Amino acid sequence: MSTKVIELKSAPSLGKLYAKAVASSRGRRGKGGLPDVKVVRKGVKVDPSALADYDHVCGYTLREQLPATYLHNLVFPLQVTLFTQGKYPYPLVGSVHLDNTLTVHRPVTMDETLDLSTWATNARPHKSGVQVDVVSQVHVGDELVWEGLATYLYRGQRIDGDVPPRPEEDEAPDGPGIIWRLPGDLGRQFSTVSGDVNPIHMHPLSAKAMGFPSAIVHGMWSQAAMLAAIDNRLPDAYVATMSFRKPVLIPGTTRLVAHQGGQDGSWELALRNHRKGTELVRGQVRPIS
User: Rounded to 5 degrees, what are φ and ψ at 232?
Assistant: First the structure.
């Protein structure tokens, strides 16, 4: 059976896609397995104005090289398009972004023409439901220049198999760091530059309706801001992994701790609640030789 390819001619409206996803969530019962579907968009050119707005919200300096997280920003509408397909078995409403890994094979510049693609794979058990990997790629011509691996948790869903044990981890870095005072409208700021209008990020009341005590920051803002803080010290090729451990509530105050060590120049990162010290996001950056 061949893969079904859905080719987008332009960037879809995420607001409309979210409305479609919400309307169809109750009918998605986790049955039938992941569809063999790939969503693609070819010939994409970066809008310098949109990039500048994104850089401003996330803390990047505008330059020719695209932030790794901005490439995720470009493929995210493809992911949501995938989630709204009739045979996609899991509901977008209530899903949780657990981890996000970005692989930069080489710097990508804002004047290059990009081909984007996304598909879902590897549905497997989680103690709270089912987790699925969403793979995204960016090509320049025939060259693979960037990859994304986003792991989503669909709470309350079930799939056959055993829940794997959680691997042992070293302590995340702690100590002095960069203090960020996050405003209550940060979710709305990031939604403007990303198109991600998930209600949990937009307003305290809509977040409370989804079970959160207040609005929470987008995980992709956290990853972007953490990488932006060390952007001038990143190599040309690297793998950046972020694990979103606890919601980053807004308004709030956080502390970014970044330690560089090892012969390869790897980074260990942690975003913590500044007052309590609670680990909110854990990150690693590994150079590709």
Answer: -75, 0
* CA–CA separation, 228 and 222 (whole Å): 10
* Tokens representing residue 199 in the block: 């209600």
Instruction: Locate 202 and state its tokens.
Output: 């937009």
Q: Is 110 helix (H, G, I), strand (E, B) or coil?
A: coil
Q: Are 75 and 119 spatial neighbours (Cβ–Cβ below 8 Å)?
A: no
Q: Which two tokens stand for residue 132?
A: 């699925």
Which two three-digit tokens encode residue 265? 């120049």
In the sheet that 143-155 helps form, which strands lie side by side, from edge to edge?
4-8, 37-44, 114-126, 129-140, 143-155, 95-104, 238-244, 279-287, 266-273, 252-261, 178-182
Whole-number Å distance between alpha carbons of 45 and 66: 12
Which residue in this structure is represented by tokens 């045979």? 87
Picking from 281, 287, 279, the residue whose alpha carbon sits closest to that of residue 261 is 287
The full set of domains in the chain, from first to last, is 1-158 (3.10.129.10), 172-289 (3.10.129.10)
Bridge partners, residue 8, by sequence: 41
The tens digit of pLDDT for each residue in 75-131 reads 999 999 999 998 899 988 778 899 999 999 999 999 999 999 999 999 999 999 999
CA distance 137 to 175: 36
